[in-house]
Specification:
CATH topology: Cytidine Deaminase, domain 2
Shape: globular
CATH superfamily: Cytidine Deaminase, domain 2
CATH architecture: 3-Layer(aba) Sandwich
Number of domains: 1
Number of helices: 6
Oligomer: single chain
Distance between the termini: 32 Å
């Protein structure tokens, strides 16, 4: 079930995806219902990170009209495994910190995959991991782990309070895509610790996690192992993007 507020947020996200389509080399579709699951797993695990493996649904191909509208001038065909299909399956495979979360536990690997598959040896096409209190921007470790991904990598960033062991990370450069919430204003990003603390206390609260944390913002991006961004489109049960139709006018 996708609540009305989230449906509206996903429509806004898709509008930005449409407006910036020329900045991306390919697109990938995520069902809104799957995002609800991903958020639930993320919130249940705070302040830890989680790693999620995902596969596409071979019965849910991207609708040609959607593909034609959202693919930009820099689009490329056959760029990654699962391209042209909607994600259908997702499983949490690890939980930990930024140093350990990309490695799969032994129960998710065996000799079939071998050491040459790297820390993410496994059957999944796409991977997603969370960034607790950090923007959804790839780190050097994220880029290294992505080299073993046949599909695309995604990062789900979530800002929450109280911070506990995961204070908000500032000064990360890169393209940020908000799903819900608002980006920090300049006064929040700078100034004294006390000033930043007071500014955070006034931030809107999207909701409460089961762990007791207040959720202030959600971000999501996707990228290819070559470093280029992949355009994320959130779709409903009919594989139509939230906010459909979009026009070029």
């Amino acid at each position: 079930m996708v609540d009305d507020w989230l449906s509206s947020a996903l429509a806004d996200y898709n509008q930005v995806s449409f407006d910036k389509r020329d900045s991306y080399s390919a697109l990938i579709q995520i069902p809104g219902k799957l995002l609800v699951e991903l958020l639930s797993w993320c919130f249940q695990s705070l302040p830890d990170e989680i790693l999620v493996g995902m596969d596409v649904d071979p019965q849910r191909q991207v609708i040609p009209e959607v593909s034609e509208l959202f693919l930009g001038a820099e689009s490329r065909a056959d760029m990654f495994a699962g391209q042209g299909y909607t994600i259908g399956e997702a499983k949490v495979v690890n939980r930990g910190n930024s140093m350990t979360v990309h490695h799969l536990p032994e129960e998710w690997t065996d000799e079939i995959f071998g050491a040459d598959r790297g820390p993410r040896g496994g059957r999944f096409t796409h991977w997603l991991h969370t960034h607790p209190n950090c923007p959804a921007i790839p780190s050097s470790a994220d880029a290294a782990a992505a080299q073993w991904t046949e599909g695309v990598d995604m990062i789900l960033g979530v800002e929450f309070s109280p911070e506990w062991g995961a204070p908000w990370v500032e000064g990360v450069e890169g393209e940020r895509r908000m799903v819900a919430g608002t980006k920090r204003s300049e006064p929040e990003q700078g100034g004294s610790w006390f000033r930043r603390r007071m500014a955070r206390g006034n931030r809107p609260v999207l909701g409460k996690a089961v762990t007791g944390h207040s959720i202030h913002g959600i971000e999501l991006i996707a990228f290819h192992r070559t470093g280029v961004g992949i355009n994320v489109i959130f779709v409903d049960d009919d594989d139509l993007p939230y906010g459909w139709p979009f026009t070029t006018e």
